Every structure is written in C-alpha cells, then in structure tokens.
Amino acid sequence: MRIVFATNNAHKLSEIRQILGNDIEILSLADIGCHEDIPETADTLEGNALQKAQYVYDHYHLSCFADDTGLEVDALGGEPGIYSARYAGDGHDSEANMQKLLQKLGENNNRKARFRTVIALIEKEEDDKVTEPAEKTSFFEGIVEGQIIREKRGQEGFGYDPIFQPDGYDETFAQLGLEIKNRISHRARAVEKLAKYLLKTEN
User: Fold this and answer.
1) For residues 28-34, average pLDDT
2) Can you tell me the distance from the alpha carbon of 91 to that of 85, in angstroms, rounded to the nearest whole number?
3) Model-level pTM?
4) Alpha-carbon separation of residue 79 from 75, 104, 133, 146 (angstroms)
5) Exposure winner among 4, 70, 92, 98, fewest CB in 10 A?
6) What distance in Å separates the CA atoms of residue 4 and residue 64, rounded to the nearest whole number?
7) CB-based contacts of 169: which residues, under 8 Å, 6+ apart?
C-alpha cells in the first residue's frame, strides 16, 4: 500500500515510517512533487489536518493523511494549541516557542499539559457502479498527558520535547529517546490507530 503523508517535516516522516514499518509505503509531499505552502487556517486540530489532506487529495487525486498536533497547557487555557509550531512567531523557532511558554507559565505550580495529535485520512473509494471514485474521510486521535517542567532537559526529539515530561516517567520526551517516545507519544497513539485501520482495510 502507498499513501501520501502531507508533510515534508523530516522528523515526522521518520517517526511515522518507524511506527508503520514496511507494510505501508509513505510518500512525502516532495515525493509527489507538491511544493505548495498548504494553508492551515482552521481553528481546530481536526480542521487543520483535514484541510491539508483535502488539499492533496483534490490536487493530486491520491489517498492521503495529514496530522496536526498541539500542546495544550491547562494553566494557559489550552495554549499554545493550534499555534504550537508558531507560538513565538511564524519562524517555527522551537527554542523561542519554549522560552515563551516557560515565561508565560512563570512560577505557576499548575504544570499540567497534554500533547494531542489528530490525523485526517482521505481515501479513494472505488465503486463499480460509480464512474467517479468517492472519497472516505476518517479521523484518528492520540493524546499523552504530562507536565511542563521548569527548564529544558535532553537533546533528542524536537519542538517542545525538552520541557514535556509524560505522566509515569521521570524524563522528558527529549531524554527518553526515539524508541520509547515512538511507543508512547501522542503521534504514536494516533498512528497506531491509523495503522490498524489501514492494515485491516488492506487485508
């Protein structure tokens, strides 16, 4: 099975390919010649994921999935949420994003937070009775609860990983290493649901 993952983010592609293994071939946007800046103008993670997948499906007519991930911090009313990647500006600067978050939290003792990933999948549905293939849309969600620590720890991972400590662990995502993170992360949980669905439909 071949399917497009609507991203050119090398970290995300690597994570997804490791989780899915060899059963499903994952194509990036670059692999299909898509170099456009796909809009993300929805006000929810679900909306943004669907917008990206729909763009690829409409323009390239290929089955596609897209994800959107947000870090939701309780004490900040769910911020940064859909703005997680550009919290400190449009430069997608992870260091600046972390510093802004830590600054806004300050000495607040409520450090509860969660990472939430939503995947939108759009598939071609072939039907002998219909000349045009229909499309089917499905959503898959993964959540990991944790807390925001007061200073960065660890070198691996990306984004907010050095300041997010998942519940049940004494280390941050950036300290746990990719093998453990890929097993327990929000994206891993969403992709696991996606993989089960894809492999079931494949068979």
Assistant:
1) 94
2) 9
3) 0.86
4) 8, 10, 40, 15
5) 92
6) 5
7) 176
In this prediction, residue 176 carries a pLDDT of 94
Separation CA 129–CA 194 (nearest Å): 28
Instruction: Give 37's DSSP letter.
Output: -
User: 110 φ, ψ to 5°?
Assistant: -85, 100
Query: What is the residue whose two structure tokens read 């939503």?
Result: 118
Q: Which of 68, 93, 127, 167 is catalytic?
A: 68
Q: What is the pLDDT of residues 137-163, one digit of tens each?
A: 999 999 999 999 999 999 887 899 999
Is 161 known to be catalytic? no
User: Token digits for 152?
Assistant: 């960065």
Q: What is the C-alpha separation between 14 and 190, in angstroms, rounded?
A: 15
Q: Taking the CB of residue 32, how many other CB atoms lie within 10 A of it?
A: 15
Tell me how far apart the alpha carbons of residues 52 and 40 are, in angstroms, rounded to a whole number.
7
Q: How far apart are CA 97 and CA 80, in angstroms?
A: 9
- Segment 114-125 shows an average pLDDT of 94
Beta-carbon-side half-sphere exposure of residue 8 (alpha carbons within 13 Å) = 11
